Amino acid sequence: MEFLCLAPTHSFSTNPKSTKNISIDRTSTTGRIMKMYQNMRGSTVRPSALPLKMSRIVTVPDISAPVVSTPAILPKVDPGELVVNNPTGGDPDELIQYLVDILASPVYDVAIESPLELAKKLSTRLGVNFYIKREDKQSVFSFKLRGAYNMMSNLSKEELAKGVITASAGNHAQGVALAGERLKCKSTIVMPETTPQIKVDAVRNLGGHVILHGQTFDEAQTYALKLSENDGLKYIPPFDDPGVIKGQGTIGTEINRQLKDIHAVFVPVGGGGLISGVAAFFKQIAPNTKIIGVEPYGAASMTLSLHEGHRVKLENVDTFADGVAVALVGEYTFAKCQELIDGMVLVRNDGISAAIEDVYDEGRNILETSGAVAIAGAAAYCEFYQIKNENIVAIASGANMDFSKLHKVTELAGLGADKEALLATFMIEQQGSFKTFVELVGSLKFTELTYRFTSERKNALILYRVDVEEKSDLEEMIEKLNSSDMSTLNLSHNELAVDYLKHLIGGSANISDEIFCEFTLPEKVGTLSTFIEAFSPRWNITLCRYRDQGDINGNVLMGFQVPQSEMDEFKSQANGLGYPYNLDNFNEAFNIVVAE
């Protein structure tokens, strides 16, 4: 399986059957909206066979889809390299209805027209006009209130009187709670028991009734749908509904008013609601503007689904950018993306962290990890294709950063921007060798250094970070070290190395039948002890490394002594726990430190 990766040159063509003139009553609300459309589009209007009113369709997410692990091909796509989608253009009658509904949306009862800000430092560095759409400036620090309010404001009085319900562990929950408060409608939000308290409190402060249920989002959603059916509550999906999509599409109208002649708009993709709405507007008003989605490598559900031609559910999802950590994209949003968007780009977690630092450098604002995904993708795209002198827009989707996650962001930011490098050097342990090593590093400034000699090895291992101003300086330094019999590896983009290696220097040992596994566990009191009881004393535990990263889930690195004859039994026990895990014995960076 291979991706076709190239810069698209196509644009959406006008459908011949949709160029008829139609008569419009320009005194009516619909007529005024259609006139606005004509003025923006600069051409005749497509006829609409649909009734010109807001859609009330509510689709319950279909969670049945093929389950796959993220394929190995995805990391082979460079950050910023476009994975091309060949859009079909969609149904013209449905799209004109979308346009009318977006323009008529009442989202400004709760939302502001967020600013489109020129990022001067990013623009100078990349050689483009780099604009950031600041949805983090909304009252709930996220764009999500738009879709929730748009859908809920279109419910009947009877539906509002009964109340609404949703499942969410993040920004959608706050959007529904705020909409419920404004519409005087009781909102019930089912959140996983593992949800950080700061997010639970934020929803309650907006008047939402919080129910904590289940260990995962899927369990919370299943329970919410059950309550919806039993209690007659309208379910407000986070993305897979036309009303939600149209509310998010109002961002597109604002961008179009604020800036013209845009090369591309970059949109973060989780379930696909935001990009569907923005694309539905732009592909009618400014069809030559590319609409490009951005996902992390570890949560590339839309990229993979578009490539396969059908929705696929990821077996494991990286939750570093938790706001876009979606295992299965929406059925409706997937169809819209197939019809309208130009493609997807992927970014690493260190690139997302570097984007957070870029925004902080611009104006001392801190985005959440998912809020910076589109900025990371836009910057990587410009660098990959050497885009110059174009107008680039990236949507900053939110700023609900969990404070405890900042330490990991700062660890990754310098590496993601290639301002810093993480290196491992093997050095023959003899008098004067460390001094020689320091001299060979030369003018590159150390930012971190860990050195440990073990009697079991002929060579000592040095793990260190250095500041990097020019890539050529780093390459020259590595060449000097290698030619001086100091074998050196660049581990800058090896996340296992970044997360664990500095804590394990000096911890190498020659242990028979040792295996290493990285498990993803829910952040809940007692989970770690229950997890360990599942393996011990059946198998000897040789290593454990854990750190709270501020996510709903946490990662723990474990070492076990498992004879080859017992591997099937071990895997069966691990699979039975229901926690995602990876065997890390074949990670080169890991083995040079821990295993001998």
From TrEMBL:
Keyword set, alphabetical order: Amino-acid biosynthesis, Branched-chain amino acid biosynthesis, Chloroplast, Isoleucine biosynthesis, Lyase, Plastid, Pyridoxal phosphate, Repeat
Gene3D superfamilies, alphabetized: 3.40.50.1100, Biosynthetic Threonine Deaminase, Domain 3 (3.40.1020.10)
Family of the protein in this entry: Belongs to the serine/threonine dehydratase family.
Single annotated GO MF: threonine deaminase activity
Pathway: Amino-acid biosynthesis; L-isoleucine biosynthesis; 2-oxobutanoate from L-threonine: step 1/1
CDD domains, A to Z: ACT_ThrD-I_2, Thr-dehyd
Predominant cellular place of this UniProt entry's protein: plastid
Intracellular or extracellular location(s): Plastid, Chloroplast
EC number: 4.3.1.19
Pfam families per the UniProt record, alphabetical: PALP, Thr_dehydrat_C
Protein name: Threonine dehydratase
Highest taxon in the source lineage: Eukaryota
InterPro entries associated with the record: ACT-like_dom_sf, Ser/Thr_Dehydratase, Ser/Thr_deHydtase_PyrdxlP-BS, TD_ACT-like, TD_ACT-like_sf, Thr_deHydtase_biosynth, TrpB-like_PALP, TrpB-like_PALP_sf
Gene Ontology cellular-component terms listed: chloroplast
Cofactor: pyridoxal 5'-phosphate
Biological process according to GO: isoleucine biosynthetic process; L-serine catabolic process; L-threonine catabolic process
Record-annotated ACT-like domain positions: 421-493, 515-586
Catalyzed reactions: L-threonine = 2-oxobutanoate + NH4(+)
